Structure formats: C-alpha cells, structure tokens
Amino acid sequence: MLTHAAEDYLKSIYKLQEKGGKVSTGILAEYLDVKPASATGMIKKLKTMKLVRYERYRGVTLTAAGRAIALEIIRHHRLLELYLFKALGVPWDGVHEEAEKLEHVISEDVEARMDEFLGYPTADPHGAPIPDKNGVVAEVASVPMTDLQNGQSCVVAEVSDNDSALLRHLGSFNLYPGTAFRVIEVAPFEGPFTIDIAGQQVVIGREVAKHVFVDQVRDPDNV
Amino acid sequence: MLTHAAEDYLKSIYKLQEKGGKVSTGILAEYLDVKPASATGMIKKLKTMKLVRYERYRGVTLTAAGRAIALEIIRHHRLLELYLFKALGVPWDGVHEEAEKLEHVISEDVEARMDEFLGYPTADPHGAPIPDKNGVVAEVASVPMTDLQNGQSCVVAEVSDNDSALLRHLGSFNLYPGTAFRVIEVAPFEGPFTIDIAGQQVVIGREVAKHVFVDQVRDPDNV
DNA sequence: AAACTAATTTAGGCATGCCTAAATTATAGA
DNA sequence: TCTATAATTTAGGCATGCCTAAATTAGTTT
What we know:
Two copies of one chain form a homodimer. Chain A is 41% helix and 17% strand. By secondary structure, chain A is an alpha+beta fold. Chain A folds into three domains: 59 residues, Orthogonal Bundle (Arc Repressor Mutant, subunit A), CATH 1.10.10.10; 67 residues, Winged helix-like DNA-binding domain superfamily/Winged helix DNA-binding domain (Arc Repressor Mutant, subunit A, Orthogonal Bundle), CATH 1.10.10; 76 residues, SH3 type barrels, CATH 2.30.30. In chain A, strands 3-8-4-5-6-7 form a six-stranded antiparallel β-sheet. In chain A, helix 2 crosses helix 3. The radius of gyration of chain A is 19 Å and the shape is globular. The interface between A and B is medium-sized, with 18 and 18 residues. The structure holds a DNA duplex.
C-alpha cells in the first residue's frame, strides 16, 4: 500500500496533467503546498515504483499504473463528497476538506456501499465526474464561464471545489451544477458578468467566473 | 493536534486502565502490536504533553486531559461502527477495522451528524457504551458469561469487537447484544456452555464465552 | 557564444515512530 | 542480604516526508 502522501502526489499530478501535459516540479510543489525540493524527493520515489515517468528538469507524467491509482483516489474523494452531502447533509462548501482526509482511508467495501447508496452517481456535488470502479472517467465537455458572450444561455456544469469561501459565495446565488442562467451583459475591459438566474439578476466578478464551468451554451433565440 | 499514533496510545491506555489500573509498558506494547522500547518512547512524549502520568518502571495512567482525548477517539470509533453498520450495512464483523482508520480523521461536524442520524445512541453494534460529547460514559454493569451458573438466564450486553472471526462465529448463533439466552448446562472442568437461544440449543466453548458479557442475570424460576 | 536568470536538484537536517541490542532496574527467591 | 530473572529503558539505526541552503541546469538574452 502507498502512503497518504504518495497518493496525494499522484492525485495532484493527475489533475495538473489534465490541463497542461507534463507537470513541472514547481507547479506540483505549489499545488501541494510543499517546497520544490520536497516534490523532487517524492517524484524520485514514485519513479522507482514505476508510477511516474520522470527525467531531471523535465517534469513528471503518470504511468498507466500511476494513473489507475490517482483515479481510484479521485473516485474515493468524489464519492465521499457526494455521500457526505446527500447522506449526512454536510454543506456544499465543507465536503471537500472532509473528503480530503477520508479518501485515503476508506475500504473498497465502503466505497462500493456508498456507490450503491447513491445510485452509482457520475458527478460529485461540484459537478466533477466520478470515475467508475474501472477508472473510466466521463470526458469533460464544459467551458469556462469567462468564454460566454452577451445573451448566451447555459447550464452550470462544474465549479472548483477547493475554495470553501468561493463555494459559499456561489451558493448564495444558487449557482450550483445544473443551474441554468443567461448572460445579460459582459462588461468591457475584463469586467464582471451580469447574469439572469431564474429571473434574478446577479453580478459575477471575473475572478469568480473563472471557477465556473458551463455546458449547453445557446445563442439568444431572438436575434 | 495529536498524531494518529499518539491517539492510538491514549485509547489503548484508557482501555487497559479500565481493567487493571496502572498499565505496564509491556502490556501496552503487546496491545498495540509494537515493541516495548517503542511504547516507552511514546509514553515519554505523552508525558511531556501532560496527557499521561508516568515514572520509569512504574507504568502509565492517563491524566484528565489524556482521558478526555481517549474518550473522544473512542466516541468516534463507536459512533462510526454503529453508523457503518446501520447506514451502510457494513457487516458486524467488519466495522471495527474500518472504524479503526476513520476514527482519527472525521471532523466534529461529521461526528455530530452521525450522532443525530443515529438518534444519539448509547451503544455500538458490539454493545460497548458510546461516550457522549462531554466524555461521559455509561458504567458497564455486565459480567463475563463465564460467571454464569446452570439454569440462569440473561441478556447479551457486550462482546469483544476486535476479532472478526469470533464475531462471525457469534453471529452464526444470533448471539448479538440484546439477545436473551438461558444456560442449560455448564460442563465441569472448564468445559463448554450449553445454552438455549430462542429455543435453539447451542454449545459455546469457554474461550468464546470469555468474550461475551451479559446482563440481567436471573436464577431459574422453577427451583 | 557567453552570461544571466529562473527553475530544479542535491546535500544535509529535523521530527515522527518504529526497530534491535545492550544496559538498567525492580522484585522475588535463595 | 544478595542474586537471578524478567521487565523496562537507553542507545543507536532506519524509513518517511518535510525543510533550508547551496549547487546545478535549461533556456533565454545580449
């Protein structure tokens, strides 16, 4: 069995590799809140375990074996988030932190029981896809909200899960995965978005919008 | 925050102290499956944290602060056992191992939510009392089954939780906390117990009986 | 092509928590 | 009382995983 730390590294490499290919030591270290020197050390260990491809100064990527473990941990994490949310009523903005600790510790049996209880779900409370038991993840087809144009309507697909305060903020607008909205106005010069959610107008700053990803984008019906 | 290892030591000292006062290094080490030298090391650390009273060669006991932490961990453990059993259907003989890992990792919030879900229970699936949030534990009034005499009837109060095979064995007789039975015969010379559970006669060996604790002992009605 | 800069790696240290082997101590028995 | 034995403690080592500081390297700039 791997250590919790090693599992965290694999999970992080997976996520960073998703958006950007090879993962540099510095980026990884920052993501894990660790010094680059520490990341180098762990990367070397993971390489000897053949979980990672690595050459000095050249960045890391996961091997198939490393990816399988990363997806297993991510599956734990997202099932736990959804379970805590649905079964225990843990608030939206609290499930990530809790799952972060539990993901390393639950058995395959408990994983399977949560999965069954939840009806074999495919997304966590933030809209992130849950890999199935074979490590197959749904493709992410959503685009950042910052790509939207005036008048377009869409549905929230996913929001970043790691900032609790941001999640509370989004929650206060009812901006959950599945929520539909329409862009009323995009202020020029990197300005905020004014959107219509179920008849309510809300203004969303660009920094916040960066963390919201949307689906089913449609141009205005009336031209 | 304490390390998981330190928490395990405190929990173990608490349990051993329950039945036998001062806890020797050797007993503690054996209970934790660790060498005595390692136990000495941790005991010293716990002493500097004032969680434990200790003098060389003289054994350990918990201070009030140490006891409070031990009870908190035990509360986590027992709530988790019951939760896993009731909410997720984890089998009787599997909850202990699972809870052993989770107990160090759940938040107070999740603890409280499980407690509420379970209706503020007072005993885990093995009949062990669950300390309340203030660290108050119910007195254990049960006696070992091996104290029973011919003809006496009683109710199972508690069974040891740490041996999965033993639990499966007891389960196969329906010997759960709350189950009533009557002693038909105690074979002489440290022999087995023949008991009547809801009309079924079963034979229970002494080694097994040592791990069963009973309540509400009554002498036979008809003399 | 040489030099500079920024990123990365190496070297050496520290805490945790375990181990083995050797010393110490308590305690019971001669 | 003195000694033998069994338990305990000390001493020294090892793996993990982090750190800081110093050296190295890649890649760009001049």
